[in-house]
Amino acid sequence: MPPPPPPSQGAMATGAANHPLPCSVGRPKGTNQRRRPASLSVRASSDANTVTLLDYGAGNVRSVRNAIRHLGFNIRDVRSPEDILAADRLVFPGVGAFGSAMDVLNRTGMADALREYIRRDRPFLGICLGLQLLFDSSEENGPVSGLGVIPGVVRRFDSSEGLIVPHIGWNALQITKDTQLLQGADGHHVYFVHSYHALPSDANRDWISSTCNYGESFISSISMGNIEAVQFHPEKSGATGLSIFEKFLSPNSSGAKAPAHRKASKLAKRVIACLDVRSNDNGDLVVTKGDQYDVRDHSSSKEVRNLGKPVELASQYYIDGADEVSFLNITGFRAFPLGDLPMLEVLRCASEKVFVPLTVGGGIRDFTDGSGRYYSSLEVASEYFRSGADKISIGSDAVFAAEAYLQTGVKTGKSSLEQISRVYGNQAVVVSIDPRRVYVKSPDEVQFRTVKVSSKGPLGEEYAWYQCTVSGGRDSRPIGAYELAKAVEELGAGEILLNCIDCDGQGGGFDIDLIKMVSDAVTIPVIASSGAGSVEHFSEVFEKTNASAALAAGIFHRKEVPILAVKEHLVDSGVEVRMQ
């Protein structure tokens, strides 16, 4: 299935991608084939403050736009092959699937224009898939031929020996070539999110400017003349990434980056700040926090807990060093036309200030708005991506899809999880699991995977299974967390956000039994959630489980435990983390 069209052409277009609106988030609004095509001959433009951006409509390039504008540059969008050849500087933030991208490029004539632009050695920066497409071919749903600029084949990471795939998170670069683009990046972590990679070889070694190690050494950046490309996401790599961007956009600038507190050496464990967003009783969007999923005060007022404004808090957490920010929309704005969903405005505004990954969850499903207009879950996800989300989180819909899959053994391809994963790649899809602990005396009592618990149950039970829920924990389902995690991995999830209703808001620590069971069972990253109350809880979950990240909310909102304190404690505990 090809990716959705660019915002200017799609039926879902809001215009926000090219014409940002002022941010005002609060009350909801109401409703080596280097051939030269003979026909392509265009002179380059001369606007020194303008960058040409090739956005073919798949995934979130809003953050790239925001990074470019943050650095003081204007953007000219590619609408035709001639626009590519007229560019002074071209940024190609490829996202999504290799085959879908090449299909668009070939169909529009832009593939030939890209080859010619690169042959002329014009300033070029490819990002993520924008690097992979330069190679001969990819094994992703293929083989599929690429642009053929660099020798080599793009292959999937091998998870057969337990390697977690996708490669998601902040990893270190091994710089192999002295290039201006990467000056100052040595010793810093940069953000990766991908399942496919290109390997170094004798045929392409002259192109390589850095490598990264994840199971094996892969190409993390290339440089040849004015042609640059990176596998990581500079627009999501904080100050280090912005510095890299600035060096490409302003070659004469220093783009200085302060020395790292601690030299990056490998993939870091991530610390994620989560913001539960809903409208309060006055209709204002606020960040709140539940106590076992109850977000109302236990006082006589019973008001929704108000812990701050979404964009302001997200911006502060970025400054404080959060590795990702996750928004959970816990209000169903079902009466609004999709383009007016309040969370879209939150994302648009946050992505202008937050240059680390943004995830949004809640409401990713088919729905019909108040005017009777039907929207598919893929359309909803597409609009979230265009508005600034890097990943979307699916909850209840994924549970129902997993139940159907386990009953029939058939992947229909029709669930929101399967559709979004197919179009945007599994690295863009998180499944949120909300289980509740159920104690049993013996594993034989239930058909679901049980664990021997660290602390016995109220009647002395030594075992428990974890029953999954939907609708914000209100409804229990006949499926366990283990079974759900295995099923959604098969259906295309790229990451699991593992909550625990029993631990939510209690501050007693993560449910280690649950997290170890699930993180040992799957080969995709697991984010530990629910229960953090101290810095020690973070080191405990990383030392005792295979969790790739740990998420917290209330302790950050209430300023009980600063993000920096968590990271300093993890460093002291010997855990690799990103330090600003």
TrEMBL record:
Which InterPro entries does UniProt cross-reference here?
Aldolase_TIM, Class_I_gatase-like, GATASE, His_biosynth, HisF, IGPS_HisA/HisF, IGPS_HisHF, Imidazole-glycPsynth_HisH
Its EC number is 3.5.1.2
Q: List each copy of the Glutamine amidotransferase domain by range.
A: 53-248
> Which pathway?
Amino-acid biosynthesis; L-histidine biosynthesis; L-histidine from 5-phospho-alpha-D-ribose 1-diphosphate: step 5/9
* Region described as Disordered: 1-41
Q: Where does substrate bind?
A: 363, 499
Q: Which domain of life is it from?
A: Eukaryota
Protein name (database record): Imidazole glycerol phosphate synthase hisHF
To which species is this protein native? Aegilops tauschii subsp. strangulata (Goatgrass)
Q: Lineage from the top down?
A: Eukaryota, Viridiplantae, Streptophyta, Embryophyta, Tracheophyta
